[in-house]
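agent> Task received from the user: take the single chain below, predict its 3D structure, and emit structure tokens. No templates, no multimer pairing.
agent> Plan: (1) validate residues, (2) run structure prediction, (3) serialize to tokens, (4) report one or two observations.
agent> Step 1 OK, no nonstandard residues flagged.
tool_call: predict_structure(input=
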Amino acid sequence: MHMKHVTLRVKNLEQSIKFYEMITGLTVHRRFNADLAEIAFMTNGEGETEMELLQVPQGQTFEGKGMFICFKTDKLDEMHQIAKNRGLNPSPIQYPGDETNYFYVYDPDGVSIQLRTFPN
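)
tool_result: status=success, residues=120
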């Protein structure tokens, strides 16, 4: 079984798209309006799991409590510096002793995003 997509309800679609493009390298695969909603599907490649960003006026958004989304990166130090330079207040880089390193940063709606390196 393959996970097709994860949906995040967002307050500001443009702001969220810019954040995920910058921090994760995801790009908009498709974008459209459906009734009152505006939707953007972001991915890092054909056939990969997508992130659906869903903006519904007066709709509820997820405020990021109790979960985080992890993205694998080979550019941890560079991404940490970019997050600092953009005023995103990233956590310090963590070294848990399992051959991985990571840091956290919050998206515009408070969802905790983890960027992490993994051994080859």
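agent> Step 4: summary for the user.
The chain has two helices and seven strands.
agent> Done.
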